[in-house]
């Protein structure tokens, strides 16, 4: 059972060392110091009778599990904007720890709690992210080979990843073979590993995450995006309305409303950047494959005579609509209809 206490401890977590500050209910500082960012050292620190507050990050998962296991009240904070912690713009670990404790002590709305996904979802999501890492490595190698070949006046024909090495060998001059053959071998190896991850992802959907299967009925949404969406959201009931998913994933513009000044700002980029990138890719794919759906027609009509910056905003708006649609299909158990029943997904961008 979580133990209630009137003291608050803010921990500015570093990769090796972390700074902490403990405040009384009145706001008076009663302790501060530095501690190693290890389970053993944090376990000793959490013996302090205080509510623990730290930011989400690489260490926050095991720290929250440690605090929970010790019965300590804790908050994993989404304090993303450093200026909220350090208005002067200067980075100071002690001041940041103090600010975290103070924001929690006063119940400030600037300190938004984060809920970590479950261990199973985290492990399955690691499979998807590992595949993405290999894809990016393969793309970098392929682009390098193309660039080198182009520099001698030749060109590798377009080809899928697994066929690229064979196509490249057909045009490579002998002088470039010593430099590029090892890279082609790596591309072949990566293609095989990526295919294995693809099979693993399909198996995960089939066995453990069947909710991701209906989401693939949406054009442009494949198994990777569908599974990532399910694993990232984890529980569709956490959102009262499907349209709340857009702000959660950072797909809505930041707001600055002061007097008569209401500038058009970029998106907030809150939430998971990996899923946001996948949804933007889906939006590009939906536009590229034509007006086969109501959402596709919506986007194409608006991009037809738009400039570059406006097209980017429309793509982001479409990504947001896709996210809203995916949540609705999942939460309500509805079947996707290309032309009707868009509901929340047809909301104004």
Structural descriptors:
5 strands; alpha/beta; 13 helices; 349 residues; single chain; globular; five-stranded mixed sheet; 50% helix; Nucleotidyltransferase, domain 5; 3 domains
Structural class: alpha/beta
Content of β-strand: 5-15%
| Secondary structure: number of strands | 5
Largest sheet: 5 strands, mixed
Query: How would you describe the shape?
Result: globular
Q: What integer value in Å does the Rg equal?
A: 24 Å
Overview of the structural elements:
The C terminus is likely disordered. α5 packs antiparallel against α9, α6 packs antiparallel against α7 and α12 runs antiparallel to α13. The protein folds into three domains: 98 residues, Nucleotidyltransferase, domain 5 (2-Layer Sandwich), CATH 3.30.420; 89 residues; 133 residues, no CATH class. It has 13 helices and five strands. It is globular. By secondary structure, it is of the alpha/beta class.
Secondary structure layout:
Elements: E1 8-12, E2 17-23, E3 29-36, H1 39-45, E4 51-55, H2 60-69, E5 74-77, H3 82-85, H4 93-105, H5 119-150, H6 164-171, H7 177-207, H8 212-215, H9 223-233, H10 245-248, H11 273-288, H12 294-303, H13 308-332
Parallel strand pairs: 1-4, 4-5
Antiparallel strand pairs: 1-2, 2-3
């Amino acid at each position: 059972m979580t133990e209630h206490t009137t003291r608050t401890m803010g921990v500015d977590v570093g990769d090796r060392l972390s700074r902490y500050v403990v405040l009384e209910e009145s706001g008076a500082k009663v302790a501060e110091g530095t501690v190693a960012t290890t389970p053993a050292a944090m376990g000793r620190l959490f013996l302090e009778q205080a509510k623990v507050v730290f930011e989400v990050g690489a260490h926050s998962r095991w720290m929250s599990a440690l605090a929970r296991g010790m019965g300590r009240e804790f908050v994993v904070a989404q304090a993303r904007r450093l200026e909220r912690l350090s208005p002067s713009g200067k980075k100071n670990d002690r001041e940041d720890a103090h600010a975290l404790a103070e924001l929690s002590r006063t119940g400030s709305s600037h300190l938004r709690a984060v809920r970590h996904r479950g261990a199973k979802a985290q492990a399955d999501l690691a499979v998807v992210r590992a595949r993405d890492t290999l894809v990016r490595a393969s793309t970098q190698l392929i682009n390098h080979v193309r660039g080198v070949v182009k520099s001698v006046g030749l060109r590798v024909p377009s080809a899928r990843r697994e066929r690229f090495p064979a196509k490249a060998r057909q045009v490579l001059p002998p002088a470039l073979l010593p430099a590029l053959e090892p890279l082609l071998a790596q591309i072949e190896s990566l293609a095989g590993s990526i295919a294995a991850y693809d099979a693993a992802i399909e198996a995960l959907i089939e066995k453990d995450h069947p909710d991701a299967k209906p989401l693939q009925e949406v054009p442009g949404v494949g198994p990777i995006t569908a599974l990532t969406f399910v694993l990232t959201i984890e529980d569709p009931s956490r959102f009262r309305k499907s349209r709340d998913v857009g702000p959660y994933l950072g797909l809505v513009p930041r707001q600055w409303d002061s007097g008569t000044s209401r500038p058009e700002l970029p998106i907030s980029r809150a939430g998971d950047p990996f899923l946001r990138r996948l949804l933007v890719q889906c939006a590009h794919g939906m536009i590229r494959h034509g007006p086969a759906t109501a959402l596709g027609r919506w986007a194409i009509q608006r991009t037809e005579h738009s400039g570059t910056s406006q097209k980017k905003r429309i793509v982001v708006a479409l990504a947001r609509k896709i996210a809203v649609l995916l949540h609705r299909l999942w939460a309500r158990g509805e079947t996707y209809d290309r032309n009707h029943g868009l509901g929340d997904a047809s909301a104004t961008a």
